Amino acid sequence: MQGSRTDGDVNAVVGGYLRDLAFVQSSQQKMFGYKREAAAILALDVPLTDLLGADGALPRIPGIGPGSTRVIREILETGGSPTVEQAIAGSGRRADIDRRRQLRRHFLSRAEVRRVLLDPSFTGPTIQQYRGDLQIHSEWSDGSPTVQEIADACLDRGYQYAAVTDHSHGLKIAGGMSMAEAAQQRRAIDDVNVRDGGQFRLLQGIEANIDASGQLDLSGEEASTFEVVLAAPHSRLRRNEDQTDRLLAAVADPAVRILGHPRGRITSSRRVWSHNGTSYLRRRPNGAWP
Fold it and tell me: Nearest 5°: phi and psi at 7?
């Protein structure tokens, strides 16, 4: 199947074909429409094949229109979509679509990720074995939860530690913290750790911005005030040129312990943090999935 990394992940195949169809549209409205429908398929908890009725009928899927339904039926019946292939052939964008297909070879749908995580035959770490999370944004940059709410949610998950890694001061568009604000945040985190009495530890980290040359927006002295320094690029992510040297320069910085999202944003959204029925962090409806 040309739309995805793996034949077994039918939702990724369908999502890929719908993304292909989006990028050959002459109308921006139609392009965004197909991108939204692709995102809806990629976000399903179960494979499309599990939704088929005994008679082979596909139930109505929220957010999916008749055009996308036709593509889904073609893929379920044949493994491909003549409708999409014809649209690509007539668009003059074959090279660009092939490039996008190559880029998403290793992407998985939500349903496939859930299947892998719940498969007892895999010997990797289970959800129950996770002890912490080292990249979380709070109200101090572009997140919503307080540090106390983060700690409470982590305790509910059985975590032993977590790091709040808000954006650093060089990324103003994401509400990056000034060093003065970071000092205030440290006091709030210290209060959390005193309250939780040693059963859980909240670390103060930072998500430093990597510029085009691979340098961080923190000086060595500034970086040393944080317990965990995560470095991540936030610009020039859609360029075609090799950015390996840029990332290698960043991780060569002795302060850096984690390299964040080197290939750009995750499909369709920022991470959503849920606690007591409340979802935190803003969702972006049009993600960077190729």
Answer: -65, -25
- Cα–Cα dist 68/289, whole Å: 18
Residues 252 and 264: their CA atoms lie apart, in Å, by 20
For the domain that residue 63 is a member of, what is the CATH number? 1.10.150
What's the CA angle centered on 154, arms 148 and 158, to 5 degrees? 140
Residue at a domain's end among 118, 150, 184: 118
CATH of the domain at 187: 3.20.20.140
Q: Which residue reads 């008749």 in tokens?
A: 66
Taking only the tens place, the pLDDT of each residue in 259-286 is 998 876 544 444 444 444 444 443 333 3
- Closest-CA residue to 139 (of 281, 287, 289, 286): 281
Q: Which among 150, 134, 132 is positioned nearest to 229, based on CA atoms?
A: 134
pLDDT of residue 252 exceeding 90: yes
Q: Read off φ and ψ for residue 161, nearest 5 degrees.
A: -155, 165
Query: What distance in Å separates the CA atoms of residue 275 and residue 2, rounded to the nearest whole number?
Result: 38
Q: Cα 237–87–105 angle (5° rounding)? A: 40
Question: Do residues 269 and 139 both lie within one domain?
Answer: yes
Facing residues of 164 across strands? 136, 204
